[in-house]
């Protein structure tokens, strides 16, 4: 996978993070969050851009919070949980011009793609351009300490599969390469502006989404092509992360293997205490399934499972110093400085419950988001 040198690097960073985490399990240094992506991460941008009715502005969206906010969710979205965990307010949609962006901004918007130029949305490039044009809203220090969270590509592959029912292997690979090349270019723009800490979530097995199966007319079987495209993409995306961490000085990342996480649940749903992995949570149609909010999932997302997250989990990404040698010199000082924040976070939040909530929310949302594509 990686060369020995980067193994050593990973080992050292993991040990360092572990050392900090042992003393202060939820210490957070990052105080700013920038979000890029599609409907899964949309905090309400769509309603500021669209001329049409935006479903997410109306119930049942937002029902668990009693208010629809433009999030494609029954309540909070994953970046909200992360913000909560970091001890900062929810990150507002950038298109809400009156919002307070002191802790970051969300550029994510429903229907976003990497390639093409779909109407009433912003491609990844357009999102990154907006971020870059507005970088003066934040200091250089803030920009370099921030976490950059990215989830994008589902719509590219679902649309591709719809328009190209039987592509050759070479055609599939060529399309994936186009998507990855573009993502690479955009990460470099963010890095150029000062971004160092990237949190990537890879794509779900798109053909297993209930909405996709339903549209295919066979709810028992996952649709092969969309999942295959997602798997090809994920492999290349991980390679890109490894490559960038060698190429770009100080580039740090957390890679969450959402694909495996979802697939484990679809295949071994009982193990994960979902009532079913076949039907959707709270959806409509023949396989909508059961109430997702009552599910109790037995393992931590982006939290601790070394099989699906690496090389750093989100907590580690938050605390990893930009310059590792500095912390080696000043570790006691750094820990002392973190102590008040640590106690504050622990007194305010049930961090374990937050991990579980995040997991449930992800599962719910990826399905919901996909149901609007078909
Ligand atoms: C911020 O960083 C840029 C380069 O990324 C540099 O040109 C600029 O002078 C810096 N601003 C301050 C205030 O240090
Ligand atoms: C297959 C399945 O679980 N279908 C359910 C979908 O939701 C409706 C209403 O909430 C139920 O009546 C179905 O049983």
From TrEMBL:
InterPro entries: GDSL (IPR001087), GLIP1-5/GLL25 (IPR044552), SGNH_hydro_sf (IPR036514), SGNH_plant_lipase-like (IPR035669). Residues 1-30 form the signal peptide. The keyword Kinase does not apply. Keywords: Signal. The keyword Transferase does not apply. Belongs to the 'GDSL' lipolytic enzyme family. This is Inactive GDSL esterase/lipase-like protein 25.
């Amino acid at each position: 996978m990686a060369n020995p040198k980067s193994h050593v690097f990973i080992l050292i960073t993991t040990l360092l993070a572990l050392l900090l985490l042992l003393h202060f399990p939820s210490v957070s240094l990052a105080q700013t969050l920038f979000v890029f992506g599609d409907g899964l991460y949309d905090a309400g941008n769509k309603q500021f851009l669209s001329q049409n009715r935006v479903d997410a502005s109306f119930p049942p969206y937002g029902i668990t919070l009693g208010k629809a906010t433009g999030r494609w969710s029954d309540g909070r979205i994953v970046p909200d949980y992360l913000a909560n965990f970091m001890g900062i307010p929810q990150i507002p949609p950038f298109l809400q011009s009156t919002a307070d962006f002191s802790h970051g901004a969300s550029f994510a918007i429903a229907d976003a793609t990497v390639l093409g130029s779909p109407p009433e949305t912003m491609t990844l490039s357009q999102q990154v351009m907006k971020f870059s044009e507005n970088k003066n809203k934040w200091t250089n220090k803030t920009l370099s300490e921030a976490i950059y969270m990215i989830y994008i590509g589902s719509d590219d592959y679902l649309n591709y599969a719809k328009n190209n029912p039987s592509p050759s292997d070479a055609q599939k690979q060529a399309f994936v390469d186009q998507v990855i090349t573009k993502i690479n270019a955009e990460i470099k723009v963010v890095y150029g502006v000062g971004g160092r800490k990237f949190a990537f979530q890879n794509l779900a097995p798109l053909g297993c989404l209930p909405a996709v199966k339903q549209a295919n007319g066979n709810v028992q079987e996952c649709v092969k092509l969309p999942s295959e495209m997602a798997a090809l993409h994920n492999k290349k995306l991980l390679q890109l992360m490894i490559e960038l961490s060698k190429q770009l000085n100080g580039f740090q990342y957390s890679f969450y293997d959402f694909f495996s996480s979802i697939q484990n649940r679809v295949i071994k749903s009982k193990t994960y205490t979902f009532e079913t992995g076949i039907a959707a949570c709270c959806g409509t149609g023949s396989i909508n399934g059961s109430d997702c909010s009552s599910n109790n999932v037995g393992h931590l997302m982006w939290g601790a499972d070394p099989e699906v997250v690496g090389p750093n989990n989100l907590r580690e990404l938050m605390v990893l110093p930009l310059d590792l040698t500095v912390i080696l010199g000043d570790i006691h000082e750094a820990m002392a400085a973190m102590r008040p924040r640590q106690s504050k976070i622990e007194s305010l939040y049930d961090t374990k419950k937050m991990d579980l909530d995040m997991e449930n929310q992800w599962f719910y949302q990826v399905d919901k988001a996909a149901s609007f594509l078909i």
